[in-house]
């Protein structure tokens, strides 16, 4: 999505006792390196454990939060089960953080403003990049990964980033964070890969060459996917798409997928070579439908749940949640929020969608992970739009999602066993209800609790007996 300019001019070069104490509060904690799984569909830690990407969008974290606030935000996301935080390094080339530190000399990405030392107590030592370091280290302490966009796409589109400078900047970042296991690189930034392709390739190639142990992808424009331009590039480890913020009737793209974000997954899933894919920016909770008109209805928790289950069950390796107030880190000192936002980030972090994402992650990690495949042959009546039902399974389990409580009719016999145990799982609170045991043959209809209505979503769980 495209961000409007935010006020980042206030200087808070305060030597408060609490702020000083935080300079020594962060201790490095071992965070496992991330890899692509053996079957190339998912993420895994270097010791072979499943890693389900549960991201949060905090685009302006480095610009707008101080150290204490950064710690509070990251701790909240850790507690709620998130494990990836997506952040812009440079939203704009005149980027200034909350302490008044500028990032670049003469707005040139090849010339970062770096001062000797990094003491918060000494204003002459502490700089923009030290503040980024602090956030990365705080995240590392909490077991969180930072998915960093080096420079937002609008700056490149404006012709402000030359290829040679892009390489120097990417090399600077790669060198600075080469020893940090919790870094993931998101090239691009809400932009088209077929525009200024040489710049995006320069950044991607440099990051991968100099940080070969870190995952790299491309964050594209709305209703586009990285695989449209870079799937065959060796620097692209996994695909990312932005299903965007528009309703079915607002989608004017050539694809016209509308809200069917599972279609992007399906397209990537069938590409060769095989690479994982993630919806890196679906509709945000608390943002207008269609993005720009605050008179439109706002997307709610039920919508972000739907995007999550639809994409993951279609074969995605994870999911990124977002909230309008949090992605822009809206504060009381800001004159007004973008996209009609009136909520402060400190309140928005507790909105229901953010609380509910952990149940998606918990469900996916409950069963044998790497054997999971999408399988729509399970669903006898798949439906369209909000009636759509999606299924995923392993050898001895199957999961089927309904967004509106419509009855689920299954073609049985897709997992092993003569009989299966059936349960309902609530994406709203993670609670389970036993249904019973059924023959694993023929067709079987299941009636979810409650009446049929949007947001009465359920996962039907079948396990082999």
TrEMBL record:
<protein>
    <submittedName>
        <fullName>DUF4038 domain-containing protein</fullName>
    </submittedName>
</protein>
<dbReference type="Pfam" id="PF13204">
    <property type="entry name" value="Apiosidase"/>
</dbReference>
<feature type="domain" description="Apiosidase-like catalytic">
    <location>
        <begin position="38"/>
        <end position="371"/>
    </location>
</feature>
<dbReference type="InterPro" id="IPR017853">
    <property type="entry name" value="GH"/>
</dbReference>
<dbReference type="InterPro" id="IPR025277">
    <property type="entry name" value="Apiosidase-like_cat_dom"/>
</dbReference>
<feature type="region of interest" description="Disordered">
    <location>
        <begin position="275"/>
        <end position="295"/>
    </location>
</feature>
<dbReference type="Pfam" id="PF12904">
    <property type="entry name" value="Collagen_bind_2"/>
</dbReference>
<dbReference type="InterPro" id="IPR024749">
    <property type="entry name" value="Collagen-bd_put"/>
</dbReference>
<feature type="domain" description="Putative collagen-binding">
    <location>
        <begin position="373"/>
        <end position="462"/>
    </location>
</feature>
